[in-house]
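Translate sequence into structure tokens.
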Amino acid sequence: MTGTTGPTGATETTGPTGAFPYKLVATDLDGTLLRSDDTVSERTRTALAAITAAGAAHLVVTGRAVPWTRHILDDLGYEGLAVCGQGAQVYDAGAHRLLTSVTLDRQVAGLALAKIEAEVGPLALAASRDGLDGDVLIGPGYRVQGQLKAVAFTDMAELWAEPLTKMYIQHPRLTDDELTAAARAAAGSLVSPVMAGEGIVELLPLGLSKATGLSLAARRLGVKAADTIAFGDMPNDIPMFAWSSHGVAMANAHTELKAVADEMTTSNDEDGIAVVLERLLG
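Result follows.
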């Protein structure tokens, strides 16, 4: 495959030249490419470098918005495209430039929240603002996962003051699966609720998914779904698996993703991506 690539990224591609059977390797970040300590192992870095040397491209496809993803890509030396924000953003890591961005209609989001709260009671809220440096706003009672940077808010007017890519909701009693199901039942005609990880239930623009951004990025790379293998761990990865030719679920994956996966690998802490890539490289 010809084109300029970083250790784990790519720009223009024309086709594989080695024995590796795919032109594109799409990987989720949390629970998949990243270990529990938010690092990428040397074994996995080596495997990704080997597939790019064999002519394939590595594409990060994450639920994280660009501001929460950029430092990870920089650490990897990743210079290609990345799909962020559950498919809302296509980001050129080499140029540090946002190529596409889909925003959540704030009036529709407000109506969706009202409908969900009418069914399940008050929710703790957070939201991602649009843009390369968009803040993540955290409301009272919302539990932030990990050490991600966030800005607290108490006034709902502040929440709606600028364009958003998505919202996050938490409930004091319902499980993540129960909250996702309740949100779909109450407001599934207005937004796309999805579970992206422990304590992370998101409201996206209607119809948006990781497959949306993945297809856009793949088109820019000149790669088709039939030439793509995808790795993931959560229900938000289901559309990515449906779009790709082959879906690989991590051992730590949610049962909904395992049910639709073509293959299982070891966990994110046991180099599950590298295990598969090394086998495919022969």
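Note: Residues 106-120 form the longest helix (15 residues).
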